[in-house]
Amino acid sequence: EIVMTQSPATLSVSPGERATLSCRASQSVSSNLAWYQQKPGQAPRLLIYGASTRATGIPARFSGSGSGTEFTLTISSLQSEDFAVYYCQQYNNWPVTFGQGTKLEIK
Amino acid sequence: EVQLVESGGGLVQPGRSLRLSCAASGFTFDDYAMHWVRQAPGKGLEWVSGISWNSGSIGYADSVKGRFTISRDNAKNSLYLQMNSLRAEDTALYYCAKGPSYDILTGYDYIDYWGQGTLVTVSS
Predict the structure, then answer these.
(1) Would you call B95 and A45 a contact, using CB atoms and an 8 Å cutoff?
(2) Is the pLDDT confidence value at B104 over 90?
(3) Which of A18, A55, B27, B43 is positioned for an S-S bond with A46, CB 3.0–4.6 A?
(4) pLDDT by residue (tens digit) across B45-73?
């Protein structure tokens, strides 16, 4: 099973600033990586798939990059609604696995 | 609009069984693979099981293999999860989720839509 490790566990950023979240795979997952956002009491929402393709309706301030074992989610200018928990997920190998999440909080 | 509505959760004793259901609407159900993903209270996401459009391909997490059975009824636009021999560690919010492709194990096993979840609590 591929282990996905996200860092940091918690990230404190001020509104309007840039946030950079990292995700590392224990072995190569090619570009088969997705990012999700989850707000308290809500289901996750797909942000990025294929490591860098934004899902339908996702604002351009969200961008994904990376391949192989190292991936990054960047939020270019944080809005109040962006403070949430973010998960990465690899779907290159079965079973699909998620990272443990990064909580993005207001500084 | 895609809608996934789970039902069937509740409080159950260890060792007992429970069957979850998911009613799908807003898309052509039998064109897509479907999944169950769970989230223990205050914890992260764990993929549980997936099924292809025609039930020809099915996969399970090791943690539930041999105890849980996923199935679908395309005529009823419904997805199911039969959970047997339940354990305390199965306590979680169970999400019904839609994949972007008709099959699983093809490199398209991410989730593009999620339901709101149904809570399963295993406790004596």
Answers:
(1) no
(2) no
(3) A55
(4) 999 999 999 999 999 999 999 999 999 99
